[in-house]
């Protein structure tokens, strides 16, 4: 198990953790099966149900396919979750991943290797590769025509899963590529904002830009000169907006604000989920909405110094209490 002593939870939000969980489970599969068999002999009802589920070839081939496909996305997912992520570089890497997935989808050698790995893992526990029961008319299960288990699982599982990944990558990143060109307006990359980037950005943010193309061009030229003369250059979009005078650079300001609202990754949401688990635990299950919001604000703005003594004084002066907080 590569020095890992326990299985990982299949995370619902983080693809990186999901890939690690599947890899760990695949390596620990023999240990899991033997453990479930021992528990089943002791009349453990849940162990029997889990053993029946993992002892199906359908489960094993799905495990192998998902673990392999998600492994290709690990580095891209980690890169996207970086707070200082370069989205243009991420787009280029996304195109590489898409090309790799498309190449493997049509490469029979890749599928044959995956299917053989599933067969070897299944045969160790006397599980034979098989095709689910098929009928002439079937609505609630894949009924693809196939002569062998390999052909069936390639059509109904592998191709479908890879196509889903390709569609998600294209919809979430590739489709939004014209809008991401505006990242070159950031001070540290403003000299890379060439004519091509200008035209793409103007067309993508035409509704947010004040004036015509010539007005926006003149504003971008002033914007470029300003940051070439500056000693300190902000890195993120949020910091750049704080340094931007919306009256002097109205179109650039609007473009940056619109760019800031684009959900480039799930990292922010995942961090908020993790914070919420720390704020609202099982011991605080009866917490009211007002207190939860206040705790969330304190956590979000943790960099602000809070005078605890002053807060106690304000709390004590709100109304008369049995306890004396102020001495």
UniProtKB/TrEMBL annotation:
<protein>
    <recommendedName>
        <fullName>HAT C-terminal dimerisation domain-containing protein</fullName>
    </recommendedName>
</protein>
<dbReference type="GO" id="GO:0046983">
    <property type="term" value="F:protein dimerization activity"/>
</dbReference>
<dbReference type="InterPro" id="IPR008906">
    <property type="entry name" value="HATC_C_dom"/>
</dbReference>
<dbReference type="InterPro" id="IPR012337">
    <property type="entry name" value="RNaseH-like_sf"/>
</dbReference>
<dbReference type="Pfam" id="PF05699">
    <property type="entry name" value="Dimer_Tnp_hAT"/>
</dbReference>
<dbReference type="InterPro" id="IPR052958">
    <property type="entry name" value="IFN-induced_PKR_regulator"/>
</dbReference>
<feature type="domain" description="HAT C-terminal dimerisation">
    <location>
        <begin position="229"/>
        <end position="302"/>
    </location>
</feature>
């Amino acid at each position: 198990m590569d020095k890992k002593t326990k299985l990982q939870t299949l995370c619902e939000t983080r693809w990186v953790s999901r890939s690690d969980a599947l890899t760990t489970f695949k390596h620990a599969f023999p240990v899991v099966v033997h453990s479930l068999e021992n528990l089943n002999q002791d009349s453990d009802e849940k162990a029997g149900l889990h053993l029946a589920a993992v002892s199906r070839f359908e489960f094993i081939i799905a495990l192998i396919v998902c673990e392999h496909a998600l492994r290709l996305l690990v580095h891209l997912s980690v890169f996207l979750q970086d707070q200082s992520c370069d989205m243009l570089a991420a787009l280029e890497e996304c195109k590489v991943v898409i090309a790799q997935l498309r190449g493997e989808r049509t490469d029979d050698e890749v599928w044959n290797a995956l299917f053989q790995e599933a067969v070897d893992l299944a045969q160790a526990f006397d599980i034979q590769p098989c095709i689910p029961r098929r009928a002439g008319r079937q609505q609630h299960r894949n009924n693809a025509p196939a002569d062998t288990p390999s052909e069936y699982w390639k059509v109904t599982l592998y191709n479908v899963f890879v196509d889903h990944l390709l569609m998600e990558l294209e919809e979430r990143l590739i489709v939004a590529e014209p809008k991401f060109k505006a990242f070159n307006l950031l001070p540290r990359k403003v000299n890379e904002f060439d004519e091509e980037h200008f035209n793409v950005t103007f067309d993508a943010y035409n509704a947010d830009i004040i004036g015509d193309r010539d007005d926006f061009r003149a504003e971008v030229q002033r914007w470029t000169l300003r940051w070439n003369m500056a000693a300190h250059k902000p890195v993120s979009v949020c910091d750049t907006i704080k340094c931007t005078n919306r009256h002097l650079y109205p179109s650039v300001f609007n473009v940056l604000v619109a760019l800031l609202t684009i959900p480039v990754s799930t990292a922010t949401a995942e961090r908020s989920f993790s914070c919420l688990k720390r704020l609202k635990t099982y011991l605080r299950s009866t917490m009211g909405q007002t207190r939860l919001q206040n705790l969330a604000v304190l956590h979000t703005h943790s960099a602000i110094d809070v005078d605890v003594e002053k807060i106690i004084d304000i709390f004590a002066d709100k109304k008369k209490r049995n306890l004396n907080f102020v001495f």
